[in-house]
Each structure stands twice: as structure tokens, then as C-alpha cells.
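Page 47, continued from p. 46.
Same chain as before, 364 aa.
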Amino acid sequence: MEHALSPTTLIELRRPRPYPAVSVLTPTHRREPENAQDPVRLRNVVAEAKRQLEADPAVTRERRADVAAQLDRALTEVDLAHAEDGLVIFAAPGEHQVWSLARPVPERVVLSDTFLTRNLVSAQAAERPFWVFSVSADRVTLWNGGLDRVTEQRSGGFPLTRRRENFDPERQEQIGDMPSAFRDEGIRHFLREADATLGRLLRQDPRPLYVTGEQAALSALDEVGTVTKDAVHIAHGGLTHATPEAVWQAVRPLVAAEARKNVDSVGRELEAALGRKEFAAGVDEVWRSAREARIRLLAVEENYRVTVRDDGDHLVPADSGDLDAREDIVDEIVEQCLETGADVRFVPDGTLGDAHGIAGVLRY
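Result:
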């Protein structure tokens, strides 16, 4: 199952497909007893997707069989034992993908010529993704960080391992990652190569960056590289071969501190915007401002959800069973704001007070 949504991946997901491109969404649960319902709900929503394929006169028999087979293959890749809060299956002629999200999604089946990506985009923004770059004299590992975990990134040239010709094991046993090792030109060349590889990845997928390693390694990297100078440095060695949990525990205090700073910063910006009359609050006002590309900063409480319908001029409350109900309007707003260059921040529940879960700083 996929977890990390890079800009390149999002572009690929959004390209038009031969009809039908099927998006299947269903909520999942991390714990008992709620997760007992997940296998049944998943089977039922996939069955509904197949029913819609069968009933759609625009879908040829050949394509119907192809997409149904892709849905069946996707089902075999779902690992509900490691489920998060939402599951998305994409299936089109000749392809399928399965995405696990750390954010709930409504149960839904959509047939179109593109995949439905708004829930992935919103989940990615809510996770506040970051990179952890772990360095040593002979290996560099990149970790993909999110809300409560890191996973090893095995693409984009990572991990990097230094090839050591004429290797002297006795000398390595003596110096290891000691400061003298990082004066070796071979090691410094390796660190320059790692810095350049990271730079290429950051241009494609920019995120906050944490760098871990022995202090000597961090100093050498600063001397020979460019892209890690402004990163948060953590003098903690041994993480290039570590478990994801060990890396997460090493960076967790700093990630938590950054999250607290983020909340304080959002509060100050919203207060200043209110004084300047450049402030929007509540789902209807924020939605209208987002459609006009007026939002510069969007703040959303982490678990804020609301179901609405559009009466033509405003969004009004609705029940989830209503025919024209929009259950993921918050995710729609998040995607729209990101598309228009807004900064989107998720904050703990209760942070926004009278704004009722969602607020924005306006450009004008």
C-alpha cells in the first residue's frame, strides 16, 4: 500500500485516463473493535464499484473486465492489519493503486476519466511530511517522515553506500566514525555526492529537513555540501542502519517542538488578520474565499469534519445520506487552497475557537 504522495506522483495520478478511471474510498480503523467492520465494508464498496461498471453503458465489455480484474488485484494488496484511517483504491484499464491514509475518507465510488485525489492531498497536508537525512562515513539513509512515524525512502538514489577499494578493516575498526575519518577525501567525496542527490530530491519534493549523524559527520557535511546547512541538525549517530522506530524516537522531540511553534504562529497570523479585516471563518465563508483564490493561509483543526450541500449561494448543513451531500468538503477546500498557492496548516482540535474548525487569512 502507498503512503507518501510526492508532487511527481500527484501529477501522474491526475493525468487523464481512458474511461473509466475508478476511485474507491472507504473509512478504515486502526484498533478493535471498530476494525472488525473494515473487511466487510471494503468488500461491499468494491462490489458497488463493479455494479456501477456493469450498469454504465459507456463502459465496453472488454474494459469492464479489465478494470474489474484490476480491482480484484488491488484487494489482494490491501493489508487491513496495518490500516490507518482511510483507504483509497484507484483502478483503470491496465493499472491499479492502493493508498492508505492517516485521515478519514467518506465511503464513495467515482467513475470518471481522472482519479479522485483530493483526499490524498488533504491527508498529505495533515501529516506535515518531513525528511530525515542520516549520515555516516559509509552510508547515507533517507527517511520519509509523517505525523507519527518514519519509513525508509528507497528511491531517488537512496540509500547511498560508499564503495571502499583497498579497504583496510583493521584501520576502519580503529577509526570508525571518529572525527579523523571525515578528513579522508574519499569520505568527503561520498558526502558531496549524498548532498547533491538530496538536493535533486528536495527540488522535486521540498519539505522540512532533519539531519542526523555524529557531530563530526554533521560538520563535514556542512563543509562540503550546500542543501543541509539550513536543516535542523541532530547529533545522533548510528541511525543509517537503524529501525524506523529508533529514527522516529530520535527526531520526535524536535518534530513536536516544531508543531507547537506552528500552532503559535498560526494563532498570531489569524489574530493579526482579524484586526486587518482579512479574515474568514466557518466552512461557508472559507469555501467561498477559496473558490475566489483569496486565501493566503488556511488553518484547519485536525479532526474537523462537516457534511454540507450547496444551495446555490451558500453551503448549508446536510445529512450524509442526502443525495447532494458533500461529505469531504473540508478536503475539497484544502485541495483548492493548495492549488492556488495557499499555506495550509493543520492544528489541534479546539485551537480555532469561534472559527468553528476552519479559518483563513485572506490575500485581500
